[in-house]
Specification:
Distance between the termini: 43 Å
Shape: globular
Largest sheet: 7 strands, parallel
CATH topology: Rossmann fold
Oligomer: single chain
CATH architecture: 3-Layer(aba) Sandwich
Helix content: 40-55%
Strand order of the largest sheet: 3-2-1-4-5-6-7
Amino acid sequence: MAEEQEQTGWAIILGASSGFGGATALALAAAGFHICGVHLDLRAHLAGVEEIIRGVEATGRQAAFFNVNAADAAKRQEVLAAMESRLAGDGFRVLLHSLAFGTLQPFISPASDPPAISQRQVEMTLDVMAHSLVYWTQDLLARNLLRRGSRILAMTSAGGSRVIPHYGAVSAAKAALESHIRQLAMELAPRGITANAILAGVTDTPALRRIPGHDKISAAALSRNPSGRLTTPEDVARFIVMWAGPGSQWATGNVLQVDGGEEIVG
């Protein structure tokens, strides 16, 4: 009974409309969390978001979703102001950073198709997929919406330490994201707030499908995964539900592999 009482409160998910973010919203709601979801979707893709909201509400939990650019400072303040009044003195127990919006173009391109990545595209990719974690954390702390016992989690990838065609800017963002996690873990430890990155195995998500050659990436991962299948968003979501409990408090600053053993096989 004590464990069930711990699994309550609010979670905020950046990138909540699909993939890891969408699956985690549903899993955390089933575990007892209210969900604040931040996403950026065109009208044509809102049906999927509405399905996630219905899934959250079907558990009896609250769903507060905002279709805004999570990397926009003004929009960030609008979301937090709205949630500050809604939480009525409470804070977020979980912050999940699962933003997957970046430019997939080569650094050097002898031909014009595809063109070489621009400075603006590199900076945008790093800002959305890495630096925004720092800014959200700063503003949540300023409003006392992250407190002792809160969990910060960020989705990284094997690309943070490997070379993948067209993935250079995203790879840099993932490496920066892991560095930010380590720094936040050190600075937030005295407050009792943990920060960890999750390195999922290759997972069939909308973000993966945008990578050129994603079918070959999936086939290679499947061939070496000792568990005999690819990772799913639900695998990661179940791990996050477990990690949100009180037993993970002493673990911080890590890159946590959730991949069925994929990464340990050469």
